[in-house]
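Continuing from the previous page of notes. For each protein in this section, the sequence appears first, followed by its structure tokens. Read the first protein now.
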Amino acid sequence: MNYRISFILIVIALIISIYVGFFELRKPPKTDGENLEAPWFYDIAYDELSILDITYQDNNESFTKINGQWTFTKSGDKVDLNRWSGIPLLFTGPRSSRLITNDLTNPEEYGIDNPTAEYIITLKTGNILKILVGTQTPDQASSYVSLDGRGSLFLVPASWTIAINDIALNPPYYDPNTADQPIIGP
């Protein structure tokens, strides 16, 4: 065998062993806590949603799914799909930032005793979930939420509650003049 080829193979083996020694073997071992994903606050199939009721401040809006079309419950008017299209997906359940407790003994500390918002989800089966939205965390990044009747308290992204609350403040009324126009940019 040629000395030149042997020298090149030894250099390549040396480079690989240095890489493994410095980068791969120095990584800290993974603990079980690092492999855990954030828990789901709740998880519902999109097709199971039937009625969505949103109460925020003094505003209340209710929406019903009839033959695959979302309408305002009281009037039966169609919703503006340009504003509504992603909202039911939000109601299928957010992944929480973390589970605070499974035994909520002090709901007033998190604003759950006097919630800032309530979301009532009625499923096709007739089962009802009532979501109580408490205060936001001090950094305004998350909101405290709880399912009524369960003792758990979760943190969810504040953007989730803000998006749903906005539907109660600014309902997606159907406007035939703009309904067929695509949304282009911000």
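Done with the first. The second protein uses the same format. Note its length before scrolling.
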Amino acid sequence: MLESLFSGISEREWIGICAACGAVWIFWVLWQGSKGKESSSRGGGIQLRVSKAAFIREVIRWCVGHFGLPPRSRTWPRVDLRYYKHRKVMGTYQQRGKVITVYWGSHADLREVVNTVIHEYQHFLDIRSGKDDRAYDKEIKEVGYQDNSFERKAREVADRWQKACFKDLEKRGVCRIVSK
């Protein structure tokens, strides 16, 4: 059968090609897995002790415990973890579905991930309705992203609470600081 598909390749050569491809795939999977539980060298020697998805959930848990849920809400935001680097953003919040998206590859280290999750959680608290969403969009058009009051507040909250969140996550064993 293989001879009919690849007439110039013997069955033995085909098995060798498949074995080589399998070995490359296994190496890649192991390499990606080892990247998943440690930060970059710029991360100050911080190591994850859980998966990336579990880490994000733990930051959300911390946010719920420290900032609470929005009035008249009993549900946490949904989280969508994307592993690639987005060309423009580190994270987003989508009001209609109450979804926080985190682009893991856009972050230099775990501190940035924590900052992004807290930032987007603040949007979850502040942008609750279509009316809030329209107000956000209107302000973006009028003053731009940097001067938007929703963005300024989210940056201030994330910058203020990032270290406290990180300390709590370390205390609970979610991550640890390793000396170099």
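What the second structure shows: Strands lie at 46-48, 78-82, 91-94, 99-103, 175-177. The chain has two domains: 2-36, 41-177. We return to this in next week's lecture.
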